[in-house]
User: Fold these one by one.
Assistant:
Number 1:
Amino acid sequence: MLLFRQFRMEWLLYSRDRVAMFWAFAFPLLMLLGFGTIFGSGAAPALTLVVAGEVQTQAGRELLGSLEQTPLKLLRLEPGAAAARWAKGETAAQLEPAGAGYGLRVNTYMAAQGQLTAQIVQRAALAAQLREAGHEPSPLPVQLESPGHAHSTNYAAFLLPGLLGMNLLSMGLFSVGMVNVSYREKGKFRRLAVTPLPKWIFLLGQVLHRLTVTLLQSALMLALGYFAFGIRNQGSYLLLTAVMALGTACFMAMGFALAGFAETSEGYAAISNVFFLPMMFLSGVYFTLDAAPHWLQRAVVVLPLSPYLRALRAIFNDGAGLAGQWAGLGVVAFWTAACFLVAVRRFRWA
Amino acid sequence: MTGAAGTSAGPALQIRGLGKAYPGVVAVAGLDLEVERGEVFGLLGPNGAGKTTTLEMIEGLTPADTGEIRILGLDWRRHGPEIRARIGVQLQSTSLFNKITPREALTLYGSYYPRHRGAEELLDLVQLRDKADAYHITLSGGQMQRLALALALVNDPELVFLDEPTTGLDPQARRGLWDVVRRIKAEGRTVILTTHYMDEAEVLCDRLAILDHGRLLTAGTPLGLIRELGIPSVVELGFAGTAPDPGPFAARLGLEVAGRADRWEIATQDPKALLPGLLEAAEAAGVPYQQIHVRRATLEDVFLHLTGRSLRD
């Protein structure tokens, strides 16, 4: 009964901060809309290749012909104009005469696009050479498929579980962790310390409140995902909810645990960033780390967000069951228990 | 769940050897006190005397370095929740959530106790009816103090702690608070309060202890402490601006004259006998006093006598 009263008071006070509440719900939705729209539905980005001058040989013409079969956008410029464009940093990759044939120049500041363009050009060049030798190139068929054999290349579908996880992480570290440190710093807990209110009821009241908030936020995101991008949960809703509850518990416990080590808000911001930033950037929220160095990929899975997202995506995007997820969820559960213990030991009213 | 040793007899509070030190400063040292049930007990002292530290150790907010505390016969280590259920606390400054209203706060805090008083009667007691639904952050300092007082009473406590309850209140509100304290006492509760106002200590307290630099200087009833001084009256000569050195005049009079910032003070057993001769001598010596005031000795004089300093430092 007391727990319910605490829970109700948390909601009452929360709802009185209209601005914060608005952003808590609007922000993740905006992120989903924004990123989902910008990065579109997995169509290949338009890549431009600047052709600075022509090599008037058979091989040269063959190459250009081959290039025109690729999805690259060819921009033929006079050498002078090409040099000017390069100097301005607008060119990702440039094909130019080099010796008897062509060479490639790639812009280090646009390495991602440039390398991708270069690879396409290389393939075209090899294909041209094959044809010259009288053979017909026969590339292998490529199929885009997720680990659970789902075929969608929709980035928004990949992003949505990432945002759900990210939302739980920031709810835990900031809405729970930072808020508690800030309140403690301002002495708002002192008056509670002289009452018989048990700490665990106070904490649980907060946890339940935040849990209902995240459930609402997630429901809204799933609805937006469905109506705006046609994304559907491929797995069981029950399992999805259970896994989300686990994620909430984990990141809130982490928030409480970290809050036990900071005296001030500034101190907490520093401590929490040590965990938050690596997880936000390296755990596969917005992009996967497959291109990153191996040691980094292996290091990141120690933090709970990576395995959590892998499990969440398996369920949401691939419709997986619990079967293959035990290891990942186990890591998350371990973090939850460990953080909870630390939190309970270090929680102080003042 | 009842505590084993909690009784309705015996002192409300017993402290032995209480002490607390922070790096570089001793806040409280070797404090022994006993407070009887049903009395209003004061801790009087200037700012920095250790009154709040002492109170917060007794309330269980701050851990004590040394000493023993027994509240209502109970021990913090073994009976924490029971003690908390039976005491009421008004902190020196109470910080509540910004957007909670007094009515909600009283209801919420009341719910933390097995037994609690209604929010409406408490709002009436401290005269916060018309602000019952205002956000805490919109209340004035005095209104926040009154709410804090109501919160201290929400659980119908046997023992009430008030830390500097009238600091920041205007004179009318101070009188109002004194009335509430008298009401609380009439209801049979024990009150322990801290203050640096001597008039408050004299008016409210059955007994008091005077603290300075974390040590107990003396304890007793207000009247008793004043009588101990042996100087029932003080004649004050007030000057415009700084008072001149009383040395020469004192020598002529053959009496002790204490020089304060803007006045001279002469302690005496019999002001009626002293006055005529004093005024004549002052006239003759051309002492440029503007006002003359005869008052009885107060706790301020007691403190002065013990430390050489004023309560209002």
Number 2:
Amino acid sequence: MDAVIVVVYLAWDIWAVVKKSWYFDSNQIIGINLFSRLPIEEILFFVIVPLMGVLTYLALLKIRGWDSTRKSSDDLL
Amino acid sequence: MIYSDIALNAVMVAVLLDLFILGSKMMTRGIFWLTYGLILPFQLLTNWWLTSNKIVMYSGAEIIGRRVAGAPVEDLLFGFSLILLSLSLWDFFTSKSLKFVE
């Protein structure tokens, strides 16, 4: 799951950085870059955010006592 | 394509995958919106931090210009697609075998 996200979104990110859609303050990043362009922070971001998203989802399922394979009264359809 | 186009396309791809291709149908589930609602304030907080300290800067030609918590409004589309795609893929890879068991 995470691997798919990382590949797709990093490709978008690298492309955007190459054409300067967005750029980073070189004084405020670690300084290690992928392909000498993309800060390592961006790579970590795309690893951590999907993981945290899924953990949030699993934690909420647990707290609410829901089962992801069954319908719940809060579902829209 | 500029950031606005790609962000919009990312949302459409994520929605199509979720509803029709992966079969996860996350967007119809209450738990998905609860999860997104919990994540969104933290995205806004992070965006505000990253932009107000000028750690990340955006090219004016690439965005429509409206900003939310310091970051371009496109960032919300990007964030939504990222969360939706993550959870859809998670559901697809983990519960596929359970889906058709009645």
